[in-house]
UniProtKB/TrEMBL annotation:
It comes from Alcaligenes ammonioxydans. This is Cytochrome oxidase subunit I profile domain-containing protein. The chain crosses the membrane at residues 6-25, 96-122, 142-165, 177-201, 213-232, 244-265, 277-299, 311-328, 340-360, 381-400, 420-441, 453-478, 506-527. Residues 79-551 form the Cytochrome oxidase subunit I profile domain. Keywords: Electron transport, Membrane, Respiratory chain, Transmembrane, Transmembrane helix, Transport.
Amino acid sequence: MNTVSILLLAFILSVTGLFVFIWSLRRNFFDHSPAASREIFSKGEIGQVDDPSATPEQRQALQDEMGHKTISAEDRQALSVELAERVEADRSTASVTFILLACSVFWLIVASTAGLISSIKLHEPEFLTQHAWMTFGRMRTLHLNAVAYGWAPMAAFGVAMWMLPRLLKTPLIGARYAITGGVLWNLGLVGGLTCIAMGITDGMEWLEMPWQVDILMVIGGALAAMPLIFTLQNRRAHHLYVSVWYMGAALFWFPILFLVGNLPAVHVGVEQATMNWWFGHNVLGLFYTPMALASVYYFLPKIIGQPISSYNLSLVGFWGLAFFYGQVGGHHLVGGPVPQWMVTLSIVQSMMMIIPVLAFSINQHYTMKGHFRTLIHSPTLRFIVLGGMMYTVSSIQGSFEALRSINTITHFTHFTVAHAHIGLYGFFTIVMFGAIYYVMPRVMSWEWPYPKLISLHFWLVVIGFAIYAIGLSIGGWLQGLAMLDPAKAFMESVFVTMPYLKSRSIGGGLMTLGHLVFAFHFVAMALRYGSRRIGPALFHQRSATRNVVEA
Ligand code: HEM
Ligand code: HEM
């Protein structure tokens, strides 16, 4: 079957799927009852805020903001049973979640350092050029691969391993598969990054690591997805909450994408470029995006103690994403030597993505409506809500960036890099920070030792990211206009970006500093500085503060 038929078939399937979905909604095939959105709450839990990273004072202020609701004796009984089960569930995931998250923090620091060095090189070309592996081409690629296959999947897998038993109401089954998978994955990544540093790559963006190394990662990724299957089989939850849909689909899509994308000697020429960007955008849209959305749909309602505003809208978001995202990759090839109908198809699908994106945005907005003041008191919520908002910004921006008229200006410029960071940093990474702040106290049965560092981390990365994204978007746009102006020499389009490239290094420096603060806090918690948590979620107390490493 040729590429034309495959893409056409995919498009017809998407549209048919969407109609089937609308029809099934009209026939009440989906759970209409608001009970589905309450699946993540126990009896009597709605109305009780829950932010494990908040101090007692912040928690009190958060509860005051949301109002006080008394729990009946019967509900309290049911709640304490469920809380005890959650403690069990948390225990079953503790080691695997901790290992994966520790790896993610390590790769975050490696990646940020490589990103900062690459950034400085763009305005100080003499900086660190002594060795080949330090040059821009390799350093930039090391940065991309360390975020794309180190920080991002390790954080997403770690958070997913913790969420699964909570959502399926049963302990995690098969944690050792995920640990083995994680080890293989990281070994593969170390091998892949070493090859990149030595200049050995497969020569395609996002698919640089040699395919021989990818074998380790394919096996590792497949093993890491095993607990999903085992735990799903043994679930005690009556309804699969929308986060399970997103995570389940993402953990199913990712190994397939990675395997197809890395098959050697199958795709050549134009087909190879097409497949490259089919992989490139699908890994963003069908892996990182659903993993982060699953987290927002779980953590946001849990923190404010209120179910999401519209459960059906969350399903529209899920199916819209599943139907439309698969074909958007062609928008990376606008103007390229590929069939124009294929690019047009991807532009149409990129615009269609506005439907699921708005479904999510409206849902988040209405869930938070009237409660925005809670952001003052909950450090975790700040990350989650800001990340959710950045999903809307990056995606709507992306839909318009796909249009030929806009892409002619932005393609080959720093504007694309700014968009990439609004998506993978402003949205995905910021959501993951929030999720990790929520998860770690439960995993470790320990408090974050220095709560003020959470705020410091937040403001450093938010200010740094704002400088990075706003400056580079302006610089990239001016660069694109200059490149299109026949009256201007090419070098003018380079010089115009200089102040913005320098501001990116300042913004990126602040982000990196924020990451160091986060990593320090993570290590301090792992070394058991601070105080112990006593009792299950919601009703926990703290033991006396300790400032020594536990023996
Ligand atoms: C409806 C949603 C989205 C659409 C239609 C979209 C569209 C686009 C377009 C048109 C480009 C530029 C292609 C080029 O000129 O080379 C791009 C690049 C990119 N987008 Fe998006 N985007 C969307 C959402 C996102 C999200 C949510 C993320 C992150 C999770 C993201 C991450 C990226 C990255 C990393 C790149 C740069 C890829 C590269 O060149 O290496 N996008 N996107
Ligand atoms: C978790 C944090 C980060 C994530 C997820 C991330 C993600 C990405 C992605 C997806 C790209 C490819 C963009 C494209 O090709 O269009 C990229 C490139 C880049 N990033 Fe990051 N990044 C992060 C942190 C940083 C930091 C802290 C800096 C420091 C300034 C930085 C600087 C760069 C640079 C210089 C490039 C290459 C741009 C180019 O080729 O012109 N990144 N990053």
